[in-house]
Amino acid sequence: MLDHLVGLIPRTVSDVVTHNRDQVSLALASPVDAQRLTTPVGAGCVDEAAVLHDWRLLAFRYAADGSVDVALLGELGSTRQTFLTSPVVALDPDRVHARTLSAVYRLGRRGEGEPSERQMIGLLRALHAHGVGEALGVMPVVT
C-alpha cells in the first residue's frame, strides 16, 4: 500500500540533507571522527532506559568554521524507539559508554553500515523535532 513511499526515503545518511549542503553536511562518522572523541567515560549511574542499541555515529560538518559535531543514532532502551543524541563529547575506548552534552549512554550492539529504513525515518523526525529539518531540506515525515 505504501510501497511507493519507500523510494522517497533517503537511502544514505548523506542523502538526508538536501538544502544548504554547501554549509552543512551529514554522513556516517569516520574512524578519525570517532578517534577524536575517544577518552574514558565515567559511566556513573546509567539506567537501562539509557542503553542505545544498533547505534551509529553521525557527523554533522559545518563549512563555515570546519567544525564537526558527532551524535549517536540508535534505538533507545527497551522501547527501541529511534533516538538521536545531542553531540558526543566522550566515547569510551571500548565503545561501552558515550557521554553527550546532556547524558551518558551505555552502548549496546553497534550497527553496521547505513541505518535501517525505520531508523532513517526516525532520523528525519528527529531533525525536524530539533528545528533544523526545514532549513536542511529534510523530507518531512507525518505519523
Structure description:
With 143 residues, the chain is of the alpha+beta class. It is built from three helices and seven strands. Strands 1, 2, 3, 4, 5, 6 and 7 form a seven-stranded mixed sheet that branches. The radius of gyration is 15 Å and the shape is globular.
At a glance:
By secondary structure, the protein is an alpha+beta fold. It is 17% helix and 29% strand.
Write the layout of secondary structure elements.
Layout: H1 3-6, E1 24-28, H2 31-37, E2 51-62, E3 68-76, E4 81-84, E5 88-91, E6 97-100, E7 104-107, H3 117-129
Parallel strand pairs: 2-7
Antiparallel strand pairs: 1-2, 2-3, 3-4, 5-6, 6-7
Number of strands: 7
The count of helical stretches stands at: 3
N-to-C CA distance: 16 Å
Q: Which residues form runs of ≥5 with pLDDT under 50?
A: none
Rounded mean pLDDT score: 90
The chain-level structural class is alpha+beta
Tell me the Rg in angstroms.
15 Å
Question: So what's the overall shape?
Answer: globular
Largest beta sheet, briefly?
A: 7 strands, mixed
Helicity, in percent?
10-25%
- The number of distinct structural domains comes to 1
Name the beta content range. 25-35%
State the order of secondary-structure elements, H for helix, E for strand. Answer: HEHEEEEEEH
